[in-house]
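Quick one: co-fold with zinc ion.
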Amino acid sequence: MKAKRNLSDILRERGYRLTPQRMIVLEAIEGADYHISAEEIHTKAHAKYPHINISTVYRTLELLKELGLVAETDLGGGRLIYHPVGKAHHHHLVCRKCGKVQDIDESVFERLRDEIGQKYGFDAEFEHMAIFGTCRSCSG
Ligand SMILES: [Zn+2]
Ligand SMILES: [Zn+2]
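Sure, here it is.
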């Protein structure tokens, strides 16, 4: 098993100050099994640390994004969700009609990525994308 460094270790190594608020936000992101929104992070954090406010959550998320430690995806309608980057090896299919979100494996884009590379000499980064459309039950 390879040693797993968590977000707070990485921030500490890079010289960032870890306030209790920041630690709680990091724990909420890492503890989430699936995606988590800023509001959900705030709700979780608030239960442990009632003085935390949502702007701390946003600021911490901004920092983590800048450092490339979390993936942010816009599911449409202002729904932004987050993962630690290590858990972001998939894409999302988002139904415009019912809002349902399904995961698909990132390997789905391998051929397209190769093709873009060959045709355009462009190294495309398909990272944790939201793909919009209509789900099976809504199109049925
Ligand atoms: Zn995801
Ligand atoms: Zn649907």
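If it helps, The radius of gyration is 17 Å.
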